[in-house]
């Protein structure tokens, strides 16, 4: 059994193979071919060699094989930043089982939506997450997925098998399974989304492996790379740009950080002589504030990667001075395309652009509203296709028809300027999404939930500027009656009642008599963003 996805046309796949970009090898090679005695992962007090990661993931795969898990099945995974995330990932890949790795901040709403889409046979979660303290939510998930039968918990569990006990039981059974074919789906990435339900991104071994190898090359990763995984480990950036997988490919090691908190991370950097870290801009801002009193702790850093949301030039310029290392900007997307500033670029390119595509077969166009390419340095929408950019979301024909054109280009919704050298600078967005310091919120998802409220007629979620986060979210609400009595706290509680991730709950609510409309009758979000901008200005004068 294979998992359905939109394949690349054959003329393209031939070119990708001919160029050596697609090697028809499974992602398990990342750990199986690594120098086995090297440390792969440091997690709290524990250090795992590549041999440990390989043998644990094999043991786990063998155990799952006895449960009947097989190629073409899927798994719902939600783990925090711990070594087990990778052990579980490679165990599933060994069996040809495709995981979707939910973020640890995701809640009932997101997990249920993923389960509904992929119909997982197994759940792998952490005892640290409140949802998995008992079997209740697992039972709810079983209603979303007809085939969900098994659960494995990392940590102590009274209601499910625990990973530790599986690993403690010795087994000398052989593993009969193999990973899915390299041109088939290996796992699902998460899209930030702009629609009511979060979309899933099928990634093949071939395309993902290539993006990891090329990223590691661009970023000069080597066996002496010590990478701090401080962003959520399931996110595409710390997983593959070059992230933990780039480290595995080159035989270095990953140090797991529980969060991007500056003090926690500086201690880890000092203790483990970390050389590379990756952050979103708000976390970088906090590191820069804390750095002057921690200069001695961070001398080992050589590279600070920043991406996920727009980095201001002023923050960018502070990196070399305050962190004593080089900055690299990255414009990436879980759908594929990743742009990097190069390590030998001049400082102005590094602080003012978000880089250029990683390979020569990445096709990038910047287009105007009529779909025509614009001149250099003129803003337009970034569209792209290439050897690691998907041709379609998982089981989403209607949405795919909107964001993939007839030539297979993915319309990113990002507004960019491209300079004469091909470097991109993000200048805005033409998709209904809020980028809250790197965490993406699909406006429609929250608007739909607000509309279920009996006192709300219309709602529109828009971004508002925020000094720290870049953007925060503001929900404009048209109440049914003037004396509605709705308060911010009760609305927040109401939304949390649906079990949505905390970062999606609006930072501000504004009540309004009616929504301004565009000529075609849609909520005019440009006008609403201006309204909130003015109100924020007035607030700051008070
Ligand atoms: P996602 O679809 O969740 O993977 O998010 C990808 C999106 O994040 C991109 O399409 C951009 O909108 C945004 N993004 C990523 N990196 C940057 C960056 N360096 N600067 C500005 N926006 C970024
Ligand atoms: O924001 C992103 O999705 C992102 C940022 C940097 C990404 O997917 C990546 C690098 O690979």
TrEMBL record:
<dbReference type="Pfam" id="PF00501">
    <property type="entry name" value="AMP-binding"/>
</dbReference>
<dbReference type="InterPro" id="IPR020845">
    <property type="entry name" value="AMP-binding_CS"/>
</dbReference>
<comment type="pathway">
    <text>Siderophore biosynthesis.</text>
</comment>
<dbReference type="InterPro" id="IPR025110">
    <property type="entry name" value="AMP-bd_C"/>
</dbReference>
<dbReference type="InterPro" id="IPR042099">
    <property type="entry name" value="ANL_N_sf"/>
</dbReference>
<feature type="domain" description="AMP-dependent synthetase/ligase">
    <location>
        <begin position="35"/>
        <end position="394"/>
    </location>
</feature>
<dbReference type="Pfam" id="PF13193">
    <property type="entry name" value="AMP-binding_C"/>
</dbReference>
<dbReference type="InterPro" id="IPR000873">
    <property type="entry name" value="AMP-dep_synth/lig_dom"/>
</dbReference>
<feature type="domain" description="AMP-binding enzyme C-terminal">
    <location>
        <begin position="445"/>
        <end position="522"/>
    </location>
</feature>
<dbReference type="InterPro" id="IPR045851">
    <property type="entry name" value="AMP-bd_C_sf"/>
</dbReference>
<protein>
    <submittedName>
        <fullName>(2,3-dihydroxybenzoyl)adenylate synthase</fullName>
    </submittedName>
</protein>
<comment type="similarity">
    <text>Belongs to the ATP-dependent AMP-binding enzyme family.</text>
</comment>
<dbReference type="InterPro" id="IPR011963">
    <property type="entry name" value="DHB_AMP_lig"/>
</dbReference>
<keyword id="KW-0436">Ligase</keyword>
